[in-house]
Amino acid sequence: MSAETCLVVMYHYVRDSRATAFPEIRALAPQLFREQLDWLQANYTVVRLADLEAALDGRGTLPASAALLTFDDGFVDHFDTACPMLVERGFTGTFFLSQDTCGVSPRLLNVHKTHFLLARLGAAAFSRAVLAESGLARPAVDGPGVFGADLWEEGDDRAVKHLLNYELPFADADRVLDALFARHIGDAHAFARSLYLDAAMVREMARHGMTFGFHTRSHRMLSRLAAEEQRAEVAGGVEWIRGLTGQATVPFCYPWGGRRTYTAETTEILRAAGYSVAFNTERRRLRVAADSRYELPRLDTRDLPPYTGGEEDAMLATAPSEDA
Ligand SMILES: [Zn+2]
To answer: Is the dihedral angle over the CA atoms 254, 36, 110, 157 positive or is it negative?
Structure first.
């Protein structure tokens, strides 16, 4: 049995937030990205998605210290900052797009409306605004779980994210976030145009050797959808990415990505839809022989230097990781 492993690293925003109108956005600064690439270059061999797919198929082998770099959510940061730094070193990355963000009329996803509203208002004010706009009563003091009043009082963003991502009906979350974004930030369509990759950027990145994957149409949490709705969220992604990039195979990445964000049916739906592999956010090293190809684990950039002493630090971490 093969003992091959691969370190898969996950990135989201790669930008100098302090130089933007939203300094509170939790981004990887370009200088830290550069330091992490230096560390990867010194300690790992950065492989292409095709190399990992070949190893999973038994058609090839990975180098001893293989690393794969993945980037979620199709931010223009990936074109402006990440891609040039990868190209400089001869590296490639795998970039996951939600289809609604990348088209003639890109749509600002709820997950990103939430990030920018949190950055603009702070957790306490944003939480109060969400409660007021949704018409929900203030959580009971002795209520269970994340709705404990202490969390709202402390301005912790976990409670409001949980409410928006897991609890509120989709239509209510859409309405609440549309209203708050328009009130506190502005035109969501214009914002989306400046936040996300467009098709021309995707094609240019592909010409530089970058690989693309699908991240659903609308970034809804798959575990909240019936099987038929899940099929609709992933349908057409293989053909769309192939048409944009000319790739032979198309990988998938789960929105949020924790174990509670998809169901036992999801992996079979992805296989039937023709995706080559799928990545979640289970924080550990990928094992080629042992892991399901539709549940491949990844570490977050913050699990690795310069944030931590090394990969082994992340292995000791117990906090659940989600692309929140
Ligand atoms: Zn995402």
So the answer is: positive
Per-residue model confidence (pLDDT) at position 230: 98
Q: Residue 247's pLDDT is what?
A: 97
Distance 182 CA to ligand 1 centre (A): 22
Angle between helices 110-121 and 170-184 (to 10 degrees): 40
> What sign results for the dihedral spanned by CA atoms 9, 107, 24, 171?
negative
Q: Which residues sit with Cβ closer than 5 angstroms to ligand 1, an ion?
A: 72-73, 255, 323
DSSP E strand stretches across 128-248: 211-214
Q: Please tell me the distance between residue 273's alpha carbon and the centre of ligand 1 in angstroms.
A: 19
pLDDT at 86 over 70: yes
Tell me, in angstroms, the distance from the centre of ligand 1 to residue 141's CA: 32
Per-residue confidence (pLDDT) for residue 214, from 0 to 100: 98
Q: What does the alpha-carbon distance between residue 304 and residue 301 come to, in Å, rounded to a whole number? A: 6
Convert the pLDDT of each residue in 145-157 to its tens digit.
Answer: 445 555 555 668 8
Q: pTM higher than 0.90 for the full model?
A: yes
| d(CA 301, ligand 1 centre) in Å | 15
Q: Which residues of 201-228 are buried (b: 16+ CB within 10 A; e: fewer)?
A: bbeebbeeebbbbbbbbbbbbbbbbeee
Cα 22 to ligand 1 centroid, rounded to whole Å: 19
pLDDT tens for 175-209 read: 999 999 999 999 999 999 999 999 999 999 999 99
> Closest Cα partner for 240 from 206, 200, 204, 199?
199
pLDDT of residue 152: 59
Q: Ligand 1 mean position to 56 CA, how many Å?
A: 24
Ligand 1 geometric centre to CA of 217 (Å): 11
Residue 255 CA, ligand 1 centroid: distance in Å: 4
Which residue is it, tokens 């944009």?
A: 244
E strand or H helix at 300, and its extent? Answer: strand 299-300
Q: What is the Å distance from ligand 1's center to 27 Cα? A: 14
